[in-house]
Amino acid sequence: MTQKQTKSNSEYNWYVWYTKPRAEKKLQERLIAKGVDVFLPLRKELRQWSDRKKWVETPLFNGYIFTNISQREREKVSFTEGIITYVRSEGRPAVIPQLQIDQIRFFLNESEMIEITMVDKIMPGELVKVTKGPFAGRHGEMINYKGSYKLAVRLEQIGSVLLVHLPTDYIKSFKKS
Predict the structure, then answer these.
(1) What does the alpha-carbon distance between residue 130 and residue 136 come to, in Å, rounded to a whole number?
(2) Which residue(s) pair with 175 in the sheet?
């Protein structure tokens, strides 16, 4: 995850970068060595080999890494070995809102208690507010995915959705004002 405190200065934004395949962890080390505030969300997976099983940390978003940098620092990041380019939205670098970064961090910190699933595309659903459990007070979109209800956090800039399984009695309908 990040080695520095998140920079709150309005000059700094969270940008998302395409990485070379399977280079996310090495790239994170290189960026930290350059003094860049970097966020690489990781999840634990049980991997099976022919002779053993092992828990390994893998990127939550394969091929992506997040940096909290100023416009001036973009060049320093873009010439780092392992970076392909930044993700664009309407021809400009895609900026990820701090709230989405905070939600990902929160979900990952609570991952011992919840199931996290990644999907590329989902249909829009009802807005909900979580009323119980570790996510109480959080808002999101409720979807029905593979027969169970999950809270969705969209990362539209990279076309991904983070899904969290919640019991239905933990949520209630929420109208945006």
Answers:
(1) 5
(2) none
User: Nearest CA to 141 among 157, 155, 125?
Assistant: 125
Q: Where are the beta strands (DSSP E) in 20-159?
A: 37-39, 42-48, 53-59, 64-69, 83-86, 88-89, 92-93, 95-96, 116-119, 126-130, 139-145, 148-155
In sequence order, what are the beta bridge partners of 141? Answer: 127, 152
> Taking every pair of C-alpha atoms in the chain, what is the biggest distance, in angstroms?
56
Q: Which structural domains are found in the chain, ordered by start?
A: 13-96 (3.30.70.940), 100-173 (2.30.30)
Question: Residues of the chain with pLDDT > 70: what percent?
Answer: 66
**Which of 144, 114, 134, 132 has the alpha carbon at shortest distance from 171?**
132
Please, which residues bridge with residue 64 across strands? 18
pLDDT tens for 78-99 read 999 999 999 998 889 999 999 8
Q: Which residues, 6 or more positions from 108, have their beta carbon under 8 angstroms from its beta carbon?
A: 41, 42, 43, 60, 116
Give the rounded percent of residues in the chain with a pLDDT score beyond 90: 38
pTM assigned to the model: 0.67
